[in-house]
Amino acid sequence: MNAGPRLSTSLSQRLALAPRQSQALRLLALPTLDLEKMLETALEENALLERMEPAAEDSPDTDYEANPADNAADAEADNWEILDWSSGLPGHGEGLDQDRLEASPVTDLRQYLIEQLELERFSPRDYAIALAIVDALDENGYLNEELDDIAEELVSLDPAPETVEIEAVLSRVQRLDPVGAGARSASECLLLQLDAMPPETPALDTARALISTHFDRLARTDVPTLMRLTRQDETTVHAALVLVQSLNPRPGSDFSAAATEYLVPELRTRKTPDGWQVELYPGTRPRVTVNETYAKWLNAHRQEANTQTFCQQLEEARWLIRSLAQRDETLLRVARVLVRHQSAFLEHGPLHLAPLTLRDVAEELEMHESTVSRAVQGKAMSTPRGVILLRHLFSNTVSNDSEEGLSATAVREHLRHLLTHEDPTAPLSDAALAEALARENIPIARRTVAKYREALGFASTRERRRPAHSAATSKR
């Protein structure tokens, strides 16, 4: 058998984007503030572009009709902003990742992790999976999205990845700095940090046992009980507790603390007698046009050698204006579908958020999922309930007995309502919460209730229990 090197030829099809197409995709993905900076730069560098003075009707106003429910809506918007949002971005197919990466509005943590990914020896397929995982991390560095959901977002890969494959890539991401990023729970986060420590670290095994087996007892630091459970002496238990206290349960907080996200609405929606109307929010970015004086002069002197640079600038200016018009049209089309599906949320609040995915919108508009993802990325819309990000209008489906099901966001809001109105002297267990949700036709597993409860920031039943006199005092 000849095992030496051989040359062979084969035919294959690959997606190749023209430079203008790639630039148009990046333009679509730019959030409002970044688009404004880009247009300011274009106005400075291109002599054929000029700024259009805004018309009187284009001034950003607050022309919503007075509504007695506006104050209540604003109060509900506060709760809306603190909901647990975990939305990954599909369209991670080969040939599109770098374009999306360059155009993404990234947080410091995301950028820091991506820089490390580029230094790792990932195959193109594993890199796409790792990028989807990093996109799904919250501000604390936790992965609150299910691996099955990430797999659904990566359907553009051929073949589509299985959960086992995503789990393997996740384990590699979790070893990046900061250690613990990508964890799916606080205990997993702390265990990952312990695993990164030298084996000779004092009380390392005891600390690992405390977190993996007795994590719910660590808050009380009941040393005698922990000594009995771990069968270790007092010195070892104290050393293990000190070691646990030195860990960082929120590995992404150091990065997100310095980042400030400003929401500038690029769209607005309001209720009219004919239904919900969506339009571009006026005055949020410079309006540009071609300088007609220069353009007419160039048309008359196009054959002259010294006008080639200006002819190129004219072509670029016209392409930019066409691309901006196409971008606006895409944004409006996507936003109108979102508003139509989520009209109940706009009228009644987060409990009525309907299940809606990027794939649903893409199929309805006959677009690729990656195009919809770019269109909503970093874009905000002004609504009667405040300014919200378009990605907040997406939510995965939680199946129930009804044909349409419920969105995961609505389920979390139902759970929040139960937790905030429970008796503090007899808080509901996860099993009791699951039963209460089932009575509302929301049958979900107890472990899912526990996951949502932790994501909402509520402690365990034991930690939420308060003495009767303390609860009475707080009520007074």
Question: How is the topology of this model organized?
Answer:
Elements: H1 19-29, H2 32-45, E1 49-52, H3 70-81, H4 97-103, H5 108-119, H6 124-135, H7 147-153, H8 163-173, H9 186-195, H10 204-213, H11 223-230, H12 234-245, H13 253-256, E2 265-272, E3 275-280, E4 287-290, H14 292-300, H15 308-341, H16 343-348, H17 358-365, H18 369-376, E5 380-383, E6 386-389, E7 397-398, E8 406-407, H19 408-420, H20 430-439, H21 446-455, H22 461-464, H23 468-475
Parallel strand pairs: 2-5
Antiparallel strand pairs: 1-4, 2-3, 5-6, 7-8
Helix pairs in contact: 1-4, 1-18, 5-6, 6-8, 9-10, 10-12, 17-18, 20-21
What is the percentage of strand-forming residues? 5-15%
By DSSP, the count of extended strands is: 8
Arrangement of strands in the largest sheet: 3-2-5-6
Q: Describe the global form.
A: globular
Please give the largest β-sheet.
4 strands, mixed
Termini Cα gap: 88 Å
Low-confidence stretches: 60-107, 470-476
- In percent, how helical is the residue content? 40-55%
Mean pLDDT: 75
As a whole number of angstroms, the C-alpha radius of gyration is 27 Å
Q: What's the structural domain tally?
A: 4
Structural class: alpha+beta
Separate helix tally: 23
